[in-house]
Each structure stands twice: as structure tokens, then as C-alpha cells.
Queue: 2 jobs
Job 1
Amino acid sequence: MATLVTTVTETLRYRGKIGQWSWVLHRVTGLGTVLFLVLHIIDTSWAAFYPDLYAEAIAEYQSPLFTLGEFALIACVVYHAFNGLRVTLLDYKPEWWAYQQRAAAIVFGATTIVLIPTFGFMLSHVADFYGEDPDLVSVGDIIETQSQFVIGFVAIIAAALILSALYGLVSRSRSGFVLPGRLEAAMWLFMRLSGVLILPLVFGHLGMMHVIQGVFDITGGGIEVVGTDIVNDSGKAVEFVGARWDMLVAGVAIWRVYDALLLALVVIHGFNGLRTVINDYALQPLINRALNWAVVFGAIALIVLGTAALLEGVDETAYDIAVDINETTASAAY
Amino acid sequence: MRVTMRIRRFNPEKDQKPYWADYTLDQVEPNDRVLELLHRVKWEQDGTLSFRRSCAHGVCGSDGMRINGVNRLACKVLVNALDSGDHVKIQIEPMLGLHVIKDLIVDMEPFFEHYRSVMPYFVNDDPLPEDGRERLQSPANRAQFDDTTKCILCACCTTSCPSFWANGDYVGPAAIVQAHRFIYDSRDNAAAERLKVLREPDGVWRCRTIFNCTSACPREIEVTRAIAEVKAAMRRGVKHPDPE
Ligand code: HEM
Ligand code: HEM
Ligand code: SF4
Ligand code: SF4
Ligand code: FES
């Protein structure tokens, strides 16, 4: 029973083979993507509820700091997806264990092969953008906005800790948050199933947002919005999202359905992953309970928020407000 | 050749915390085993060095330790398998995840507790066969659990597992290997009870398919495969090739 610190340092010291490093990377990339996902779902909901904030968020996504993060994010998702397939395959074909090292190497190779052209496309979008001498959000502004998220996370965890302590006093419970074995088995299965479903969905999503069009085209005026036949006249980010969500194929808003599926699968998958990591390292019952509650609350809150945004959509008034506000702030700022 | 042994020492009666100590040995043969070098340190240089060993032939499972960063049996590793040259350095420390009693000796009790939790014994209360002698089994059914009969409970696997380091309540690969040996034995009747233990959150679900256990096993047991087969048994039950 080593402490968290020993566990982490010894994982780096123990000379495990490639499988150990695959696991470390799988964990780090999964956690990194979850962090992004939380910000992303909150940001995206602004397109429906606070169009002016959405414009700012997308402007920050287009800043150099986030561009670096974007490359890292893509690498994380691609590696995690391929390694997730490897793990799932070995779970269902235990007799293939002898190929696991080769499979781990193939995962690294496949990740590289997919990333090279992807990064190529992304770099060309970046080059186009900087060729036009863009206005960039300052690092100070980014820190200011993003620190609000950090404060929010800290507040949620602090609240969960207080609740957990109170619960501990009242119930005298000495155990952490434990799922019954049957549910644990169901979640294990869900991780594999959802992973296989998420893979095409998230690759499609990233393909549209990074390869076919770039993050910079979200505010591209006069460009046909990816996956639709609607032109983004105003060049406002909310119009981009509005076009995608209002695109009907045979009467169905396909991108809303797509986003809803992605939302539900990815949030449950990511937050259950978060839960397994918490249960590995946060063993003290009070803390374990608090973090698990925060995870359950967080997952529900994000799904509710994301669904609300999808149902609300980007309506005309929101779009007008965005145009107005952007024009006034734009004239004030520049 | 000359070998420098860098050994993690700890005597709870004297030391505040563990420290590294170096011992240099000359005239080491490349095919000496690490256990022999430990003997030489103890017998020629420092009699207080403590470690477990018994059979010295890879059978009893008592000298599991971390050698050059990987868990192995000291009696099964030759110096030339680690390194070659005139001057070789070998680093030795106790297995991680179990409490260190002294130097390389760890408290194995939590490990054996997990072992006992999966009922590692044959359970069958059916009446004996007609001839009163033997419960026969087809070769194919016997082959299903052949690999997992080889375990010598050395704990190399369990103490190589990052999930076990983080949380000592995880039953660990060795206990799952032992459970596999009986779950897949067509003559045994207690598979359901063992699976019930392993279905708990501290059971098989803590395995993250890292494969450290498989590389550590000195008996070359396909540990991670056995774990995956136990997970499969939870989903679709245990099937045997031949009807009994
Ligand atoms: C920097 C990279 C990304 C960009 C620029 C981006 C862009 C967008 C945009 C513009 C939308 C609005 C809806 C739409 O147009 O379909 C959206 C929605 C969404 N994205 Fe992304 N995306 C990125 C990465 C990701 C990743 C990695 C995931 C999964 C982990 C993800 C999951 C989602 C989900 C679930 C929604 C729906 C949110 C809701 O219902 O409110 N996105 N994304
Ligand atoms: C793209 C397809 C994906 C596949 C095939 C996939 C597959 C998997 C699998 C099989 C596991 C279980 C690993 C284990 O139990 O050992 C897992 C864990 C995890 N996944 Fe994914 N996943 C995918 C996407 C995502 C995304 C988009 C996120 C982030 C929102 C994510 C976050 C996580 C986290 C945090 C874990 C826990 C890691 C751990 O326990 O070490 N995954 N994934
Ligand atoms: S395969 Fe499972 S039991 Fe073996 S080291 Fe990895 S996590 Fe531990
Ligand atoms: S499975 Fe191998 S490493 Fe694990 S206790 Fe048994 S013999 Fe030792
Ligand atoms: S001393 Fe018995 S296994 Fe090494």
C-alpha cells in the first residue's frame, strides 16, 4: 500500500515494458481530453444561451496558446482511441495476449500515421489564418476567463468535501463511494462499447472542425459551414453553430442528433474514466466520496447543459444579439 | 568480472528511512545467479543483510524482489542476463506495495489474505465416482487451466502491478491466477462463489491490462490472459470443451 506519490514515482521507476507506458499514456490522454470536454461543453452551451460569451470563447480558441493545445488534444484523442481499441480487443481475445507488445507498437505507429497528415491540414489552416494578420486575444484575457473555470472546479470540489464531511458525521460511514459489483461490471462493459461507438463520432467531429475546416473557419464569413449547405454570412461563431444545428436532412436536424449522441457517450465514458482514476488514488473515504459525488454531479450537469443547448438551438434573437454585441465591442476594442 | 551490488537497506529498529548501500564483489562469473551474489554479500561483507530464500531453484517462490527495476526471483536470474562487461552494476530493492519488514523482506500476509479470499482449493461435494477412486477429466478440459497450475505464489506479479501499488485492497493478479485455476477446472463446483468475490470493485475490474504482471512472472504464466478469461467468465459463464 504505497502512497499516491510513491505510486506515481515508482510507476516511472519500474521498468515495465511497453504495456506500462501504453497505460500511462492512455490515462494521461483520457484525463486531458476530459478536461477539455468540460470547458468545451460549457462553452458550446453559450452559443445558445450567451452568444456574446460564445464569440469570446471562439476567439480564445483561435489564439496561439489554444492552437498549441488543439494539436495536443488531437494527439490525445487519436492515441487514446487506438489504444482503447487495443485494450478492448485483448479483453475479448485473451488468447491474443502474445501480440500485445506488437499491438502497443502498432498503436504508436498508427497514431503517428494518422497525425502527420492531420497536423499538415491543421498547419495549413493556421498558416491561412496568420496570413491575414488576425487580431489575437491577449494571454492576460485568456488567463482571466479560464481562471473562472478553475475557481468553479475548486468551488465544486470544496462543496463536495464539505458535504462529504457532513455525511460522514451523520452516517458515521467509514467507506468511500462504492458501486455494487454488478454496476461496476456494467460500467466496464460500457467503457468498451462506448469507446467503439465514440471512435467514429469523435473522429468525424474532429475531421469537420480541424481537417475539412479549421477552428479559424468557425468565424469565416461567406464560407459554407462544414456538413451543411448553409453559408455563414455574418462570419459569427454563433451563426456557424446555428447553421449546423439547423441543417435538416429529410426533416431531421442531423448534427443535433450527432452532437447529442457524442455528448452522452463521451461524458459518461470520460467521467467514468475519471471515477476509476479517483478510485485508484483517492482512498481516504471522505475524499473518495467527495470526488465521486463531484464526478456524478459533473456528468449529470454537463449532459443537462449540453442537451439544453441542443434543444434551445441558436435562434434569430441570439444571433442578432451576437452581431450587435460583437459590433459594439469590436468598435470599442479596436 | 566485478559486480557492484546496490541494495536498498532498511532496519526499522535502527534506520529512520531506507537507504542505498553499495557492495563490490570480485571474481564473479557471468553465469552466477543473483542469489549467489546476495549470499556473498551476506557471508563475506555484511551479515546483517536480510532476504528470504529457500529452495534456490525457482520452486518455492520466496526470493521475489525488484532486480534492475523489474520483479524477478533472485535464484532464477543470471548475471549475464542483466548485463555484460568487466564491471556490472546490479540494483536490488524489495517488492513494492507490501510493507517492508527488513531489507528485502516484505510482509506477505496481505498477499496471502487476497489469495485465501478466492477459495484456492478444490470444492466438490458430489459423491465419489462408482469406483471410489478418481474424478476423471478429459485432456482438453485439463488443458484449460494448465497454465495457471504453475503458480508458486512468489508475488512478483502482484507487486509489479500499478493498480496494486495504488490500492492494496485490489486482490491482485496472483489471486486471480489462483482463482482461474479452479474456475476453469471442470471438476470444481465453486466457480460462482469465486466469481462473486472477484466481481466486487476490488476484484478483477481494477486490472487495467498493463501486462506488467505477465512480464514479471518467473513461471511464464500468461497472467493477463488468465485475468481476461476470468472477466469473460463473468460475462458469459465458464464453458468447457468436453462435457463431463
Ligand atoms: C478544439 C477542438 C474542437 C472544436 C473546435 C470543436 C468544435 C465544436 C463546435 C463548433 C461545436 C458546436 C456544435 C456543432 O457545430 O456541431 C461542438 C460541439 C460538441 N463537441 Fe466539439 N470541438 C472540438 C473537439 C471536441 C472533442 C475532442 C470532443 C469530444 C471529447 C467534442 C465533443 C463535442 C460535443 C459533445 C459537442 C456537443 C455539445 C453540446 O451538445 O452542447 N468536441 N464542437
Ligand atoms: C475515441 C474512442 C475511445 C475509445 C476506443 C476509448 C476506449 C477506452 C477504454 C477501452 C477505456 C478503459 C481502459 C481500461 O479500463 O483499462 C478507456 C478509459 C478512459 N477513457 Fe476512453 N476511449 C475513447 C475516447 C475517450 C474520450 C473522448 C475521452 C474523454 C472524454 C476518454 C476518456 C477516458 C478516461 C479518462 C479513461 C480512464 C483511463 C484510466 O482508467 O486509466 N476516452 N477508454
Ligand atoms: S495486467 Fe492487470 S493485474 Fe497485470 S499488472 Fe496490469 S493491471 Fe495489474
Ligand atoms: S502468477 Fe507468477 S508471478 Fe504471480 S505469484 Fe504466481 S508464479 Fe509468482
Ligand atoms: S529461493 Fe525458492 S524460488 Fe528462489
Note: The mean pLDDT of chain B is 95.
Job 2
Amino acid sequence: MRVALFVACFNDALFPGTGRAVTGLLERLGHEVVFPPGQGCCGQMHWTTGYHREAADLARGFAAAFEGREVVVTPSASCAATVREAFPRIARAARDPAIARAAEDLAVYELSEFLVDVLGVTDVGAYFPHRVTYHPTCHSTRGLRVGDRPLRLLRAVRGLELVELPAAGECCGFGGTFALKNADVSVAMVADKVRHVRGTSADVVCSVDNSCLTHIGGALSRLRSGVRVMHLAEILAETGPG
Amino acid sequence: MTPSGPAGRAPGAGDGPVPPPMPKFATAARDALADTRLRRGLRSATEAGRARQAGAAAELDDWEALREAGRAIKDAALLGLDVHLEELERAVTEAGGTVHWAAGAAEARRVVTGLVRATGETGVLKVKPAAAREIGLDAALAAVGVTTHETDLAEVIAGLGAVPDGPDAHPDPARIRELFLRGLPGAPPDLTDDPADLVAAVRADLRERFLTAGVAVCGVDFMVAETGTMVLLESEGNGRMCLTLPGTLIAVAGIETVVPSWTDLEVFLQLLPRSSAGERMTPAVSTWTGITPGDGPRAFHLVLLDNGRTKALADEIGRAALRCIGCSACLNVCPVYERTGGVPYGPVHQGPIGAALTPQLRGVKSAHHASLPFASTLCGACADVCPVKIDIPEILVHLRGRVVESRRHRPVPSPELLMMRGAAWTLGDRRRYETALRRGTRWARLLSRGGRIRRLPGLLGTWSDARDLPAPPAESFRFWWAGRPSRARGGRP
Ligand code: SF4
């Protein structure tokens, strides 16, 4: 299958390893990955912060970059949710139905949805011999409703010990610009998330949104906890020796 | 004219009582976050509330269908609000009640104060005081020499000074006992902190007032238009006494509480008790219609309060907030509320729904009101639990847009506006974006030590106060991609 990768601007700039992992993983599974170079930002941050005119411009740019692509895959649940859920709202706010139509014409999948629902695989042949806990991000569960798809993928990884995260469904406190505007509340929230993570004795926290992982990982790093954060794609791309 | 607040500022200057200037949410939240006792109380109360709601909802196979019915009934009722309110007025009047229409808080205060003074009473009982609090009634009555008495246990506790406002701060029993011993008339010196004992102490104090009170002011949960019936749910039964013993009963009700018929009410009598306290039915459900000679109050007044509601109703997205039936389920699941409690949201509507409703009712001019839509991570837990399916995050994002627009054309643009505009300008064009990627990466790497950035400049500084940022990579994804052998890049670029 030919897959257009929407890497998400955040990953493009800060987490290229995630994009490389998606590419490697999909190619390993026998699919062709293309990267439409006109892609930038879907407009999520501007939209959720209230800059709706700017969000509309960015959404139009996104639509133009992906026009005519049949299948779009992204390693960002919140960006997938933006296109699927927010584009019709952005269109309404901007009185520009073309933005909503563009979202309808595109099939945008978050990576775990694409693997499990479209490709029908849960065992992607990965090997990752570490103790891992999984944080289900708000956009992936309450937005996209990916349910346990990421967990099914993780359970099929050889060598991986999956430990359950207590109060997993609670928001990590990132919330885009919330983390800056309400920094104290945001930190109070991530402090609890970090407490739960450390209680699992996991070496790695995994998730399907690098934005939330930057938040959780940022707090873990400040504490010099030694716990790493990794995007699901990066774990699934690992095949180990041989 | 009625003085509208302790400061005695003339009414009519604004539509509400003189509010003490509230700080921005983030500022007010700081105090709450540092209050250990509050944090512990909130954590256990919200945790218990969540569990009770989940248990009570899971008992019903048709919970999702009920939620959908609740949503649809409220939407239809709000769409035909004018018709239902007129029907309600006719029915209440026929049943011997008197209906007053109040466009704003000042008008509502004037009406209620006038009614109370006409009775010659100097004390007023309050039941379900949210609407009274919304119109700033206590201060208005105090200004004409009338004292108000709380009757709800949580409100009594709040009134004794456990918390600066409202029933939502969840003080622990030991603290309540201290407060009672200090401030509750007739509290026995051997009072224990057993909740049953505490309730009994309040009841003994209240009974005296019930028997002597001449006037009560209450809120309502629902109004049934077809019969003109008021519906009030409460868990202690104190309210019921206030509704029946005083000679004059004055209900202050938001216009959005009207439902067309008893069939509609049936849906909400399932949704509300299960969502609020996780009960199959609230212990005391009172309904009354006008007056009944020889039984209960001799005079009944209904003050229908708009106070910004029709303005909210005119907003296609924001109006969904008016479906709220006041169950507090969204407060219990909100990770922000769990840590800040209700105070930072302001005195009337708290939690996520308060953040979605207050800026609609009061506007977004003040820094406090403008900060409310941003007091959420948009995690969506509230929307998932709401019994009338209010998509609170959608409303908050909508209101954020309103706040930004209202400040876009100020003579001096805010640093945030400049940053967001700059970001959109950069991200919106491939060449600019790629240049920024190259330069930004280089700059950011200068800030990093040992693979992490510990201090960020400017607006980003609040991030690095408590969180690191990984050092940006040497090469962005797109430059890596561009460097792949062209065969590996696939056909079409
Ligand atoms: S908005 Fe909150 S308080 Fe209102 S009905 Fe929904 S869950 Fe209950």
C-alpha cells in the first residue's frame, strides 16, 4: 500500500526519530511510504489556543499538501484528531467549507489505528527487551477512541514486559499552551503522572503522542529519574539483533 | 434602588453585584495548589465522586440512551424557551403563584429584596443558594438589615469559614468539628467528628430557625412548564422544611431550568441523582405548584432569571452549556478541578462547566473571565461523563477564539499574539518553515547541556521552571528524508 506520511511539525523538528521509525516500520511491513514535502502544521496549537484565523490558514495549507493522497498516516494522535474532529469546526469558524471537505476526502489514520484496523496486524515483528508502561493520551482515547490498539501492538512485541500504569487515563497536564498558561496546575498534574510512572518501575514510558511524552519526559528528566520516554513507533521499529 | 454590595457602589453601574476583582485563574490556582488540606480533601472527594457516578451509571443498561434523551430534550426545550416560559408563567399564576421576570442580577436583587421587605421579616432561609449567590443576594439583603441563613450542610460549613466560598472545597470532618465548636450556636461541647453527629448538630441549630422563619429563598433544579411545578432535589431534607414552613417562598430560577413536561422530567430524575451523588434517587425530591390553601407557604413568588442566558442562547456553539443540570459530575472527573477546587473559577459556576458558562454570561472583558476558557487541558473527561452530553472542550476552544479576537486589535499587540502570528507565518510556507527549522535547531542546541534544555527564554520560561526539554536533533525529519537515496523515497515526491 502507498502511504502518505504526515509526520507532524513537532516531530519533524524535535523527534525525527519517530518519523524514521514509522518509515522503517511501514517499509518493513512491505508498504511504500511517501512524504509530501509541502506539509507543515495542521493548525492544532493555533486552534486550541484561540487563534482561529491562523488555524484556518494552516488547515488550508495542510489540505493542499495532502490533496489527492488516499491514505495518510501520522504518529500523532492529537494531529489526527485535529484533522478529523477539528477541521469541520475550523471550517465553520472560518466560514470555509473547503477545509471540512478536505478533511472528509482524506483518510487520516493515527499509526496504531492504521496498523490494527487497516493492515490488520498486531505483531509487527518487533523485539524490545525492556520494562515498558503505556500512557494512553487524551486525544488518542477520548478523541480518536483508539482503545487498546496500542496495547495490543505492545503485547505482541517480543521481550517486552508491559506493566500497567495506575490512573493511566488521567491527563498528564500538557494541554498544549495550557502547560505554559497554567504552568502550576500543569506541573501538579504531571507530578502525579510521574509518581504513577515511577511506581511501576518501568524503564520506558510509551505513548502515541510525542507532545505528551515531552511533558512527562520533561518532568522525568528534570528529576533525573533515568526513565526514558519513547513513541510507540520507535518501539515497534526495533527488531533487535538478527 | 438597592445598594448592591458591601462597597455600596450604586447599582445600575453594571448588571451584576460589585464583584471583588478576581485574579486570573492561574494566579488564584496557585494558592489552592499550595493548600495541603484542600488538596487532600479534593482528591478524596473527587475520587469518591467519580467512583459513585461510574457505579450508578453502570447499573443502567440504557445509560447512553438516557444521556442522548437528556441532550435532545434540553436542546428542544432551549429552542422553544420563550414558549415554555410563557406556558410556565400561565400555570404558576393559575396555581396562585406570582411570576417576576428579571433581565439581570440587579433587577433580580431588587425584586427579591422588595418581596422580603414587604413581609417585614428580618431573617431569610436559603435553600439551593446557587441562584441567590449568582445575583449577590446576601449583600443586598444585608444592606436593608435582613440576615440570610444557609440550610444546606455544606453551605453552613462554608459560611462558618472553612473556605472562602461555596460548598465545593470538601473540608475534612475534623476541621468541620473545629468550626462547629467555634461558630455554631448550641453545638454540644462533646461533639465528635462522626459525620452523623455533625449533621445532627447542624439540624438542631436549623430546626429552631425553620420553625420561626417567615421567608425562604430557594433555587430549583427543574421547572415543569405544563403544570407550573417547581422541582428541587436535595440530600438532607432540610430544604424540604424550608419549602413548607415559611409563610412566603421565593424561588429564583435560571430560565434554562424549564422542561416542557413531566415525561421529560422523568429522564432527568434518572440522570441527575446518578450523576451527582451516584444515587438511584436523591433522598429528598420536592415538587410544588403555586400555593395550596392551608398547606405550606401562603405566598409563592417565582423570579425568572436571565442574567446573560439569552445571550448565551444566541451562540450556536456556546448554547450547549445551558443544557447543564448542575450535577457536578464534570467537576469530579476534571484533573484541573481536582487540584484547584472551585475558588479560582469564581463564586458562581465552578469546574469545567463554570469555565464554559461564566465567560458567556459575564463576557470576557475582565482578565479573570478571559482566563477561564484556558483553565483546561481539553482532556475531554468532562464531555465523556456529562449526563446531557455537553462537549465542554468544544465550547472552551470556541470561547478561546472569542477571547483572542476581543484582544487582537489592541494598540499594543501582546507578546503571545506576536508569537502565534509569527509561528503561523513561518509554518504556513515551506521555504520559511525549512529555514526556521535549520536556524531554530542551531539556536536551540546552543541552549542545551548534556542533551537537555533546562532553561527556556521568554514566554516559554514557565515550561522550564519545572520541566526539561530534550535538545533538538541535529537534523529534522524532512532533511533526513531529503537525504535518503531517491529510490527509497518512493515515486511521487
Ligand atoms: S456540565 Fe457538568 S454539571 Fe452540568 S450537567 Fe454536565 S456534567 Fe453535570
Note: The pocket of iron/sulfur cluster is lined by residues B 275, 324-330, 353, 385-388, 390 (CB under 6 Å).
